[in-house]
Amino acid sequence: MTDLLNKHSFVELGARQRARALLDSGTFRELIDPFQRVMSPWLSRQGVVPQADDGVVIAKGSIAGLPVVIAAIEGNFQGGSLGEVGGAKIAGALELAAEDNRKGIETRAVLLLETGGVRLQEANLGLAAIADIHAAIVDLRQYQPVIGVVAGSVGCFGGMSIAAGLCSYLVVTREARLGLNGPQVIEQEAGLEEYDSRDRPFIWSLTGGEQRFNSGLADRYVADDVAQIQQTVTALLQQGVPAQPRSRQAEYYLARLNALDATPQIEPATVRALYQGERS
Amino acid sequence: METLSFEFPAGQPPKGRALVGCVGSGDLEVLLEPGTPGTLNIQVQTSVNGAQLRWQHLFERIFQEHTPPALNIDIHDFGATPGVVRLRLEQGFEEIGHD
Amino acid sequence: MRGLQWFNALSTGATAVEGLPASLKVADGVLGGQPVRFIAVVTDPDNRFPRARNGEVGLLEGWGLAKAVDDAIVRGDQRPIIAIVDVPSQAYGRREEALGIHQALAAAADSYARARLAGYPVIGLLVGKAMSGAFLAHGYQANRLIALRDPGVMVHAMGKASAARVTLRSVEELEALAASVPPMAYDIDSFASLGLLWETLSVSQIEQPTADDVARVGDCLLKAIRDVDGRDLNGRLGASNRAASSHVRQLLREQW
């Protein structure tokens, strides 16, 4: 076991270990821990084995002394998909953090996003929970930064990629992928010529963490290293709320899209130039 | 999916509890909590059907080496091999402070 | 075309808002004496983005919705916003992923949520499909959701064919499961059983609403606007088919 602990990869850690690694030593306190067995009421009845925490870890604690709640998604359970319970854990935690702020307690939030989005076995309840998460991020973000981290290896897709887009700051690694639609679904809906889900270099070149950062769609690009991610999250928490979150820059992005010749199929370099070219 | 129950003779309950593993492909989640003195109860929820005997034999082999502590164990299995089951159980025993 | 039909019917005499992508219909009108802003996403066969020509919510639509709602917030008059929802899906394409469609939809959800938090009553009126990311961007942040009762009105996370493929089931198996698992079903009554809708109502001609249909829906919209009593989404909690969502919140509060 000591071997695992001595490694510095963040990606290799499970959701609970990730939350623990970010929080100040000794401050980790889990809410609705797995021994309380608040599990999906929908999976077992469909013949799918549930997990005791429904794949979501909610932990309170502090980072550099600042009060924080972390929501960490376990990518290895059902692809990090969000069902009713896991979704409500994240939404409810963010709602309470916003309530804290209205009472003068400056709780911040960090979301560790490894998720394919809605869990299809709980379809509409997953979607509803994700709408609640969006609502809660926008609410909390008025008071304190909400920091999203996409470390890998699952990446962040579906409705939760929208949640990533709502965060005050987004941190990605080289192992991260971020996109609305999973490659297989795009291929199925739009055809192989539009999107070849088996062409991994192609997909990474468009949706990988490095490209997202170089296109201005993420705020920090970090190595897969616990210490570096911890330092980056800490610095962003200390920085406070941004002047203008990315999701409030409609005029800028509409102008950039209007400047694009959308006729030819797009290349990664086109995106970088379009979104970053005129920025200082 | 199947739910299976097992009971084995055991020693005294430990003080702590532990969680190891994850319900990921080829893996399993094991929750270990203090039980009634003398008894080890195991509940298994598994994605693989028709494996009651294989679980029984695997547990028998593991527990004949050492008398286990008195525990209630919940297993959520997603197709783990016997080797992985054994590894996770040993990890769990180690974490609660009994070998 | 339902979205456009209902937009046109409800916004008769309203002032169109210009300067937005052609796939968006936005107008400021009056509903029973109450000033409101209507917003719909419609088909645009000439859309510069080919994967967003059939009413899908794509890049221009996401950012454009954000602009249309921001524009209302800036005015500061707390005029209710009516999102007319008939969105078959988000746009699936290479340009969309590359250019960050997730960020465009985030902008739309952000604006609707901020409008609600700023005291603008936001009402979602479901007249057709309300699918997945498209619905998250256009409608799902509403204080109140109203659905017309019709087989063509459906809310879901993924189309049947794709959902079957992703969950490794046949479409037939998926349909059989959906019949016994309410959150997986595609029909509006199952969706209503989750407690997410404020009201469902029937009309005589959903494709081509009659004057009576328009009057009844208008009435219902007004009632929904008056019913808005808070700035959160708590009105959606409480159904027995969504009991875990309340239970989890209660536990979090106790352990917070």
UniProtKB/TrEMBL annotation, chain A:
UniProt entry tagged with the keyword Zinc: no
UniProt protein name: Malonate decarboxylase beta subunit
Protein's organism: Pseudomonas trivialis
Highest taxon of the lineage: Bacteria
GO MF annotations, alphabetized: acetyl-CoA carboxylase activity; carboxy-lyase activity; transferase activity
Record-linked InterPro entries: AcCoA_carboxyl_beta, ClpP/crotonase-like_dom_sf, COA_CT_N, Malonate_beta
One Pfam family here: Carboxyl_trans
NCBIfam families: malonate_beta (TIGR03133), PRK07189.1 (NF005530)
Domain named CoA carboxyltransferase N-terminal: residues: 1-251
Signal peptide as annotated in the record: none
PANTHER family in the cross-refs: ACETYL-COENZYME A CARBOXYLASE CARBOXYL TRANSFERASE SUBUNIT BETA, CHLOROPLASTIC (PTHR42995), MALONATE DECARBOXYLASE BETA SUBUNIT (PTHR42995:SF1)
This protein's UniProt keywords: Transferase
Single GO biological process annotation from the record: carbohydrate metabolic process
UniProtKB/TrEMBL annotation, chain B:
PTM text: Covalently binds the prosthetic group of malonate decarboxylase.
Keywords assigned: Cytoplasm, Phosphoprotein
Protein family: Belongs to the MdcC family.
Compartments in which it is found: Cytoplasm
Keyword Cytoplasm on entry: yes
Protein name: Malonate decarboxylase acyl carrier protein
Biological function: Subunit of malonate decarboxylase, it is an acyl carrier protein to which acetyl and malonyl thioester residues are bound via a 2'-(5''-phosphoribosyl)-3'-dephospho-CoA prosthetic group and turn over during the catalytic mechanism.
Keyword Chloroplast: no
Cellular component terms (Gene Ontology): cytoplasm
InterPro entries linked: Mal_deCO2ase/Cit_lyase_ACP, Malonate_deCO2ase_dsu
One function term, GO molecular function aspect: acyl carrier activity
Record PTM O-(phosphoribosyl dephospho-coenzyme A)serine, positions in chain: 25
From TrEMBL, chain C:
One function term, GO molecular function aspect: ligase activity
Residue span, CoA carboxyltransferase C-terminal domain: 1-256
GO biological process terms held by the UniProt record: carbohydrate metabolic process
Gene3D superfamilies: 2-enoyl-CoA Hydratase, Chain A, domain 1
Protein name per Swiss-Prot or TrEMBL: Malonate decarboxylase gamma subunit
